[in-house]
């Protein structure tokens, strides 16, 4: 049986998963004293919808592996703002312009930030994994019999 994670542990898992897919500006905000909907917000940015989808999938897999599947995932039709509801944690994955527009950090500015573990290591591991992948071949070498 999997041990039940507290929201802080789950927020760290989500933040590390996001960082492993090169999410930027990953922050965690303790909102438990201000709202009853959740304990922690994890907020991160993606460069484009494809990366937002990859971040969402990685968080989903990491949390599933930890025994805490998301109960709700919203916004995964256009991937401009994806919201993932986990036990005690809501993860927001934004495209940069959406994050600036909605300004969740400004809205919850009076709530304390949660210190996250070093996320740089997760990002570097992903960059190293991508760097060692086989380089793409040119189109001519993929077509048999062009010699």
Properties at a glance:
single chain; 147 residues; alpha+beta; 39% helix
Which helices and strands occur, and which strands form pairs?
Blueprint: H1 7-20, E1 24-30, E2 40-46, H2 49-65, E3 72-74, E4 81-86, E5 89-95, H3 96-102, H4 104-107, H5 120-131, H6 139-142
Parallel strand pairs: 2-5
Antiparallel strand pairs: 1-2, 3-4, 4-5
Helix pairs in contact: 1-2, 1-5
Describe this structure in words.
- Belongs to the Iojap/RsfS family.
- This is Ribosomal silencing factor RsfS.
- Helix content is 39%, strand content 20%.
- It contains 6 helices and 5 strands, in the order αββαβββαααα.
The total of beta strands comes to 5
**Low-confidence segments:** none
Mean pLDDT: 88
Radius of gyration: 18 Å
Distance between the termini: 59 Å
Q: Tell me about the biggest sheet?
A: 5 strands, mixed
Identify the strand order in the major beta sheet.
1-2-5-4-3
The arrangement of helices and strands along the chain is HEEHEEEHHHH
Give the overall silhouette.
Answer: globular
Helix content: 25-40%
The share of residues in extended strands comes to: 15-25%
Tally of helical runs: 6
Q: Which secondary-structure class do the elements indicate?
A: alpha+beta
Protein name: Ribosomal silencing factor RsfS
Subunit structure: Interacts with ribosomal protein uL14 (rplN).
Family: Belongs to the Iojap/RsfS family.
Keywords: Cytoplasm, Repressor, Translation regulation
